[in-house]
Amino acid sequence: MPGHRDAQHAGQELTDLCGGPAAKRSLSELQGTDAMVLSLGRGEHCPRERQHQREMVRLHQWCAVAFTQLVTVLPNDLHDTYKMRIATGAYWPFLADTDLRVQRTLQIEEYTDPHHHATVPHTLVLAPGLVVDKVYVGYWFWGRPSPEQLWTDLQDLLRRTKTDFDPTLPEVRATWEQANATTTAV
């Protein structure tokens, strides 16, 4: 993704069918203050994409307890995007990049596919604030990360970004005790 250090400029809002009628959702809204794994998928037509999204179901089960969001963006219309979500058993937000804004902004159009508006698949690990921490390019299926690889990436990211990652450190405890003393004194 030439020249991009963060994911904020890829598209302000995309359409999501998760949980009911179509709604515009922004990545920053979906991320909140958590880490995020963002999958920029090839498209609904691709069996490799379908298999990778099935693998991400395991990751999503962990994300629910790990202050981590998972989002998939596909270069498809709402119908095909929803079809992929249902076919893979996914229950996280799938966003439709119907006008290919994300693909064009990030310059990740798959020029080798003359039949589809495919995206070169990318998986991004994002720190809070949509800051890109790691990028996988999955043009070949083995270039896509496994749930275990993403576990390691997220462990490293949170170790670097959460000051209380190891609560056994004396300075972490002292900070907590000071904050707790301040709130009980008020």
CATH third-level topology: Glutaredoxin
Estimated helix fraction = 25-40%
Uncertain stretches: none
The biggest beta sheet is recorded as: 7 strands, mixed
The outline comes out as elongated
The number of helices is 6
Could you characterize what this model shows?
- Helices cover 38% and strands 19% of the residues.
- A seven-stranded mixed beta sheet has the order 2-1-5-4-3-6-7.
- The longest helix has 17 residues, at 47-63.
- The chain has one domain (14-185): 3-Layer(aba) Sandwich (Glutaredoxin), CATH 3.40.30.
- It is elongated, with a radius of gyration of 18 Å.
- With 186 residues, it is an alpha/beta fold.
Task: Show the helix and strand layout.
Blueprint (H helix, E strand, L loop, with lengths): L13 E3 L6 E3 L1 H5 L3 E6 L6 H17 L4 E7 L3 H11 L5 E3 L4 H6 L15 E6 L3 E7 L9 H15 L8 H16 L1
Parallel strand pairs: 3-4, 4-5
Antiparallel strand pairs: 1-2, 1-5, 3-6, 6-7
Keywords:
alpha/beta; Glutaredoxin; elongated; 7 strands; single chain
Quick structural summary:
This protein has 186 residues and is α/β, with parallel strands linked by helices.
